[in-house]
Amino acid sequence: MKKILTTTASLSLALALTNSPIFAQEGEKPVSASVEGHIFKPARVDATDARVKQLKVPAGFQITKFAENLNKPRMIAVSKEGVVYVTDRDKGTVTMIRDTNKDGKADEQKVVATKEQMHGIAIRDNKIWLATVKELYTANINKDGTLSELQLLADDLPDGGQHPNRTLRIGQDNKLYISIGSTCNACDEPNKEHATILQADLDGKNRKVYAKGLRNTLGFDWHPQTKEMFGMDHGIDWLGDDEQREELNKIEQGADYGWPYIYGEGKENPGDQPKDMSYEEYKKKTKYPLLTYTAHASGLDMIFYRGNQFPKEYSGDAFVAFHGSWNRSKPAGYKVSRIRFENGQPKEFVDFVTGFLVDDNKAQFGRVVGLATHTDGSLLITDDSNGVVYRVAYTGGKK
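The line above is the sequence of Glucose/arabinose dehydrogenase, beta-propeller fold; the predicted structure tokens follow.
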């Protein structure tokens, strides 16, 4: 089993029962499925200038390194003054990054806060909100971009388990939204705050479940025109190379998105059966995804584009950072995709930044995580594999 942990291992695994069927019982009706699982992790190689140069973006766009040597940058946010902040779960830091001469490359980096397993981040006006696994903090942003002393708002967020990374957004209703992933791959969670998006006041009070049945919706945002909420949910592992596909959902208050019992457009998870009702009954209370994407691609952030630098057709479209798969034989993800919207509704995924997979897909030099729109309208992308923040700018073909 040691080979499972090596970077380039590819093997069939058994879910505890490989090559044997999984059985569940629904009244008098048996349910059976046979699943083969794989692990493949492309080897990490350096993000050299030559490799970065071969990254592919649409015509008229240019991608460059905005900042580097950042260890493992995860989530990212930008203040109205154009100061960039990134969290590092590994070191527990928040780093302030500035491009003081506005040449598209950062020239200042400074750690401005430290808490173990720091991850989620959101900014509104001159305040910042930060989340670890169990804790929620806020602080003032000083004029020089540093932060005041962190103020603890809550220390009772649900336990981490398999998905300990919390993400934060502030909605148009001035409420704080907190993504809480599941503790497991698929199970009946005893804590009803797991596998949800929570809503709370900005001071952390009046916390409640906003939507449930979401295995791990780290990336979510509101459409700038329709104000509707959308989020990318991670699919269940160990259902095979092509199941469960990643889901783009319209997130509605009080809705149930089916995990762990129902996935995709009404598929039944044979390993978990709803309590006190049939699969068919549970489907009737489940919201289905609007779009799906390649299984195990692992969308870690999603934002709508609100800048004014990109061409007009990007207005109202979203971007997703697909961190990259490990639970399939051929890698998927390792890219940034655009979600094209029409009349406020998602229509398709389109590649936006590709080329992080190299050496015939056996190696990678970037696992993208966080997304933010800079005040100049460029798109910033974190990479926690090589410690880089990338910048995608529209130049119209001019260098």
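Note on the example: The longest helix spans residues 49-53. The two ends are 49 Å apart (CA to CA).
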